[in-house]
Specification:
Blueprint (H helix, E strand, L loop, with lengths): L5 E4 L11 H19 L8 H5 L1 E11 L3 E11 L6 E10 L4 E2 L9 H22 L8 H7 L10 E4 L6 E6 L12 E5 L1 H4 L8 H4 L5
Parallel strand pairs: 1-2
Antiparallel strand pairs: 2-3, 3-4, 4-5, 6-7, 7-8
Organism: Tahibacter amnicola
Protein name: DUF3298 and DUF4163 domain-containing protein
InterPro entries: DUF3298, PdaC/RsiV-like_sf
């Protein structure tokens, strides 16, 4: 398989954030394995370029504060057919604990936090449809299922804003809450929505005044 079938770019990380790099590499290596497995299923009679396809993956810095550095990976795996498979992941490195923080790990009460986020996301998606008919939801059942307050629906998020006034932005891949043509959909969640449910040691990141 030709080396140029892979196009993977990484951000430059500060010395104190090098512990995040193995997480990015592990995700990229998993996508390579997935790609090779799918490419290997293509029949030998098809064009070589199509049979081998390509893997594109870009790790982009989305936010960098005293508390968090957030990286979002987007890309595509193509091994033939009408379109490629979109790739999406996010990595939120908490500098204090030197750990990647999954969204459920933000909360004392995971279920309450997810319910608050889901309610806000549904309001925002509905409001976007009212403001712009082109963004109106054509499949409400898809939206309700894709925004249900379960962990897998909110696996991809990044921290946004400045210290003390941060929030998170959740990202939905194509098909999850809207048709494929809408692409990735980002919904910001204000820190005020999160604050009642956050773990105590994380509250200063998301609100200027800590209760």
């Amino acid at each position: 398989m030709a080396p140029d079938r892979y196009a993977i770019t990484y951000p430059t990380l500060a010395d104190r954030d090098q512990g995040l790099l193995p997480h990015l590499h592990a995700f990229a290596e998993q996508q390579k394995r997935n790609f090779r497995a799918e490419a290997g299923k293509r029949p030998a009679t098809v064009d070589t370029a199509v049979a081998e396809g390509h893997l594109r993956l870009d790790f982009a810095l989305r936010n960098d504060t005293d508390d968090f550095v957030s990286i979002v990976a987007t890309g595509e795996m193509y091994t033939g057919g009408a379109r490629g498979v979109p790739l999406l992941a996010a990595f939120n490195w908490h500098r204090g604990s030197r750990q990647v923080i999954a969204l459920p790990d933000l909360f004392d009460n995971r279920d309450a936090g997810l319910r608050a986020i889901a309610a806000h996301v549904r309001r925002e998606l509905t409001a976007r449809g009212r403001r712009d008919p082109a963004m109106a939801l054509t499949d409400r059942d898809r939206m309700l299922q894709g925004t249900a307050p379960v962990v897998e629906n909110y696996a991809t998020y990044f921290v946004h804003g400045s210290p003390g006034r941060s929030g998170i932005t959740v990202i939905f891949p194509p098909y999850q809450v809207a048709p494929y043509a809408r692409g990735f959909i980002e919904i910001p969640i204000p820190g005020t929505i999160l604050l009642p449910h956050l773990k105590k040691n994380l509250r200063r990141t998301f609100a200027a005044t800590v209760p």
